[in-house]
Amino acid sequence: MIIKDSLISIGYISRPHSYKGEIQLRLERKIVSLQRDDFVFIKMDGQYIPYKIESVKGKQEEPVLKLQFVETYEYAQEISGSEVYTDKEVLPQESELTFIGFELIDKELGAIGTVLDVQEMPQQLMLTVKYNGEEKYIPLVEAFIDHISEENKEIWLQLPRGLLDL
Question: Which of 70, 122, 140, 157, CA to CA, is 20 to 30 A from 107?
């Protein structure tokens, strides 16, 4: 059974690519590399349907995928626009996406909250956290990080004053 909490959105199917059922994927997270024999999950009618990748070609940010059981242009057209997910467990160990679920702790403020998402912005990666009932973005930069504890799932920070007030 697929557990929604173990999946992370990586993009969406932008369009069919060929009459053989290939699809063009628009990746919103370039930190994820897709490979042959990996699985992606396509969200359809509230369900996460697994598809095995048979081939990957094209640009890294807009790869063309051939998925098992997607064999016609019509079916590729039908699933176009659908969100695509991958399992957090298959993320590379060095991927910043593995920080999802880590507790953020500031040197002065104490516990800030749990990392909800990692957003890839043009200049840097941003951690998304709920703080005082509001969603806040914290730049993932070395200058702010004191220590990362993999075993305790904690990121110790020293944030500039007022950053969480923005």
Answer: 122
Mean predicted confidence (pLDDT) in 132-138: 91
Nearest Cα to Cα of residue 59 among 17, 87, 25, 15: 25
Q: How far apart are CA 69 and CA 51, in angstroms?
A: 8
Amino acid identity of 27?
L
pLDDT digits (tens, 9 = 90+) for 72-104: 999 999 999 999 988 877 665 556 667 888 899
The fold of the 96-161 domain, in CATH, is SH3 type barrels. (2.30.30)
Q: Which CATH number among 1.20.81.30, 2.40.30.60, 2.60.40.10, 3.40.50.1110 corresponds to the domain 4-90?
A: 2.40.30.60
Cα–Cα distance measured from residue 103 to residue 157, given in angstroms and rounded to the nearest whole number: 10
Q: Strand 134-139's sheet: what is its strand order? A: 134-139, 125-131, 110-120, 103-106, 154-157, 145-149
User: Which residue in 88, 52, 47, 86 sits closest to 70, CA to CA?
Assistant: 52
Q: Does the reported pTM lie above 0.85?
A: no
